[in-house]
Structure formats: structure tokens, C-alpha cells
Amino acid sequence: MPIMKGNSMLKYTLIRLRRNYLAIIGFAVLLVLILTAVFAEQLAPFGYSDQDYMMIRKPPSAEHLLGTDEFGRDVLSRLIFGSRISLQVGLIAVSISLIAGGAIGAVAGYFGGKIDNFLMRIMDVQLAIPTILLAIVISSALGPGLFNLMVAVGITSIPRFARLMRASVLSVKNMEFIEAARAMGASHLRIILLYILPNCMAPLIVQSTLSVANAILFAATLSFLGLGIQPPFPEWGGMLSAARPYLRNSAYLSIFPGLAIMITIVSLNCIGDGLRDALDPKQKR
Amino acid sequence: MPDTHTPLLDIQGLEIRFNTDSGIVHAVNGLNLSLQKGKSLGLVGETGAGKTTTALAVLQLIQSPPGQITGGKIFFEGRDIMGMTESEKRRVRGNRIAMIFQDPMTSLNPIMTVEEQIMEMISLHSDMSGERVRERALEMLKLVGIRPERAKEYPHQFSGGMRQRVGIAIALACRPSLLIADEPTTALDVTIQAQVLDLIRNLQKIVNTSLLLITHDLGVVAEVCDDVAIMYAGRIVEYSNIRSLYRKPMHPYTRGLFNAVPKLESELGVKLAVIQGLMPDPTDLPKGCSFSPRCPYARDICMEKACGMKEWEPGHFVDCYFPLQNGGRTE
User: Fold this and answer.
1) B328: which residues sit within 8 A by CB, 6+ positions away?
2) Do B201 and B166 share a domain, yes or no?
């Protein structure tokens, strides 16, 4: 490992990240999205459920930049409000799976043996069930709604985080500095929290970023199937679903929500890829 | 072994086993060792002789499973370490017994600054204020010859020798009464080795700690230690003060080790003497003396029953029926 000037791992990561244009663009788009979600009331030209019966399914125009839907609602306004749902679902669902999966993986990896076997076999069973099916089952059992949607999406990706966490913990816990920490008289909890977890963060940060994109897509899928957010509140997947009957005559109704989903996911993936490259110590240049 | 007053560390009949898929590994078999306060003892042996396992047993850090201490007692400052509760053990670790690890590249936490790591050790074992702890950490850095402006740097910004200095600073931060150094110079190159050994020896005097130096390098022991114990297949085979042992190694294994050290005056092209064979499989140790299958002087009785430690000369203990009387020098 070359001896470098400057200071922390964080600093090197930022330096490397800055060289990655795709990641920078991704961050910029994400920032715009967050600002949009926060200032939706100020930005949207109309309310998300304001109807104009004179303007039903009208293509984009000066008054309605992205056109109107089958109830005469402004598509742009609905997309702007919809970004709130997408970001909330993305962040909270991933937090659920990160915390639950991370805890399961850390315990399994650190203590090993029977505990490890027990926890990881449960995760394997869950992995064997197709995720979309599992999400449908959970959200239909819990009923529709924003919170239930986040829980359903969150639960489906717990095993992925658990496996990743376990693998990182396994590789870190046998390193000599963990033994050195024990020889210093540190307790198990202190070793896990202060020595193992911070050294396992890099892969989890990457996985989280990529999972946010996944979770948004999943929420859109569930809403498309009618299991997520209920009308009239706009959700990108739900908007797509509602626009389906008009695909032939008013294609823009499906195109714009689809574009919104795509842009969000592509930018998150760019960030994830950039972070992965920046955090990978083998790529130090 | 000399027993004038209570030794700082007293290991009696220590037995450690590891249960593995290929059988029970007898890592340490009836090891006796004692160390007086302020003295330094070199523990010498090949890879796999059980040196590190013994050190970890003293700290009660044998991973269990698969490891298990199946017999013997370890007394530290007169107290039975094995009988302590987990929190009592934690108070001893680092505070009374500290350890320097073999590889300074991996024994420091990569995401903490060196200052933080020394502070961590101090604050684990004292209730000083944060400011005081920081002062102590800087003092320790100064003591091992690292400039204070480097305190806020991370381990990867240091060279191997400097990192080992940090390791020494951490180990001595709480002024332990026993310092275990597990091959502290093996991962360093020769010029740095000498510096680090000097540092350990000097600080041992300053901090007034006892030293258990684990190594496979007889030269390192000669430089630092008062006494030396030669370990083979989980037992001590020879124990003496350093002069007596270097002048007159009595166990055939020790003699073999000395023969295997290259000498400056030997002629070019002369091959080094080797000890024939390999260390016995620790899952299947020979019945008698564990060195007997490789020993050129072994007789029937050696295969039957190990001799046990005997004081053949004052202060010079050997586990052999037929110790070499003239130091085993080949005529």
C-alpha cells in the first residue's frame, strides 16, 4: 500500500469519486430530485389532485408542460409530488433492510457456529422465494399504504444485506487488529461496534445505494399492480399503471412517469458504481 | 526452576488442545514456565511449536471452540488467571499484561489514527479525563520516537518499523507488568529489527516490565533476554540463563538449532546442517520424548518415556536422558 499524503479514507474516497463524471452527474440528479421532493408545493404548477374537466388527456402544451391525464390532472405536478413517495420508499425501505440485514449478518458472522447456521438458513429460505412474489404476499397481507409498502420492499432485501454483512464481518474478524483489541481488554460489544462495523461499511454503502434504486423500482412495480400507494396520491408506478389503457392514443401519459423512474434509477446506479470504485482499495491510483 | 520468591508469571503443566476435523491437535503438552519480575525470557521454537498458543493462553484469548485448555494452571502476580471472571480478565488484558503482535501491517486498526488507538488503550483501563489521556498518548509516542505531529495520521501512512513502534506504544501505554512480544521483528527488515529490539529493551527498563519474547531467532534472544526457554512440540526442552545455554546447549534439539544458524567464518559452499525430519504431527505425538524420532542420539528408553526436566547443571534444565556434555560440538 503506497504511503499517501493527506488524511483519511474518506478524503481519498472523495478524491477518487470526483474523477468519476457519471457519479457526479448521478449526485447532481439526486440532489435535484431531493429538492423537488422537499419543495413540491412551491414547484408544482397545480395541486396533484386538481382536476380540469376541460382538459382531459391533452398532450403537452404551454399551460400543462407534460400534458394532462384521464381526469384532467396536470402530469408534471403529479410527477413532482410523486418524487416524494419514491424517495421516501427508497430510503426508508433500504434503511429497514440495512438495519435488520446488517444486524443479522453481523451477529451471524461474529459469533459463528450454530447461531450463524440458524440465521443464514432462514435467509436462504427467504432467498429461495422469488422476491416479487414475496413482496406481493407481504403487501397484500399488510394491506395497501405507504408504510406497508416500505415494509414489504424492505423485508424482501434483508437476506442480501445479511449475506453481505456476514461476509465482510468474517473477513474482518480474523484480522490481527481484532485480536489486538481483545488483548487490550475490549469487550465483545465494543469490538463489534468500534472495530468490526466501521471496517465493514464500504460494501454496505455501495449495496445500499444500488438497493435504493431497486426499492424505488419495486415500489413502482407494486403500485403498478395496485398494491402500493392508493389514488389519488400520485406514485410513479401507479401513474404508469393508470396510463396503460391510453398507451395507443396518449403515449406521453406512460412515457413521462417511465422516464422519471428511469432517470432516478440510472442516477442512483451511477452513484453506486462510482462509490464502489472509489471505496475499492485495490483501485488506488 | 529457580523459585526464590513468587514469580510474576508461573505456568504449571499447561495443556492446550484444538479439536479439529482431522483429530485432536495437542498444541501444548505439560508446559512449565516461570518468569520473575523485571526479567526477560526468550521463548524459542519452530513454527507450530506452540509458542503463540502459550502466549494467548496467558491472556486467556484461546479461541474456544476449537481451542481448549485441558490442564494446568497459570498464575499471574500470584492469582489464578483461569479462575477469573470475564470482566476480571478484561481488566488484566492490556492493563497488566500487554502484547505486541507479529505483523504491524495488520495489528493496527486501519480506520483509527495512531493517537486514538493509544488513547483507546489508556481509556479502557483508567478513568482519566480525555485531555489527560491525550497527553499520555503523546508521551507514549514520544517515548517510542514518533514525532507528535504524526499523531493524527492513520496506520497506512506509516512504514512497517514505525507501525511496530506504535504497537509498542499501545502495549506499554498502561505500564503493564508483563509484556508479551510475539515475534515483534519477524515482519521487519534487518536494520529496523535492531532498532525495534533496542527500543523494546530500553523501554522494558524504563517502564520496569517483564518481557516474554517469542521468536524463532536465536540471535534476537541473545540480544534482549536474560533467560531462554527452547520449545519443541508443545513442551519446554531446555531452560537456562542465556550465557549457559549459548555456551553449552545440552539438548540435542537446541544443538541442532545452533548448527542450523549460518556462521560468518564458515567456508563458502558448505551446506548448513539441518535437523533431519519434521516436527511430529501434533494430532499424533510419539509416545516417548517427542524429539526422539529425529534425535541422532535416541535410544530405546527415549521412545518409551520422556525424561522430564532435570537440572543437569545449576540453573540449566534439560528434558533429556543423555544431554550433550561438551555442548554437542562435533569433533
Assistant:
1) B249, B250, B252, B255
2) yes
